Amino acid sequence: MRHLYPIVTTPDLARCRAFYVEALGARVLFEQDWYLHLSVDGWEIGFLHPSHPRRLPVFAHTALTRGLCLALEVEDVRAAHALMLARGFELLGQLGEHPGGELSFSVMDPAGTVLNVVERRAEGGAEFFG
């Protein structure tokens, strides 16, 4: 396998582009009026416009993004949290510590996909994450 990445269906590619580029420093790998493909530190994510005439039928329903949560592991979650606040993005809940040795917060991108931004601590979670 060469790559594995999610493709999120959304009618607002421009807002998703702005969010990921401004908040996460994403690079644009491919961009058309119907599809956007980004890279963040070697990880990739695609965004597909639902009205593109050549899309596969499975992509016809924007509801496919419901229930999708992307975990974004960072080295400094406090810095990521401060950046999101400074850029005016709406956070879902507060920055908090959780069992298993993680500190995290969540934010919703313009397509309605939840990003759980996580910092794993050495003292916890090793049995699960190796």
UniProtKB/TrEMBL annotation:
Residue ranges annotated for the VOC domain, each copy included: 1-120
Gene3D superfamilies: 3.30.720.110, 3.30.720.120
InterPro entries per UniProt: Glyas_Bleomycin-R_OHBP_Dase, Glyas_Fos-R_dOase_dom, VOC_core
SUPFAM superfamilies tied to this protein: Glyoxalase/Bleomycin resistance protein/Dihydroxybiphenyl dioxygenase (SSF54593)
Record PROSITE patterns: VOC
Transmembrane segments: none
Pfam families xrefs: Glyoxalase
Record's protein name: Glyoxalase
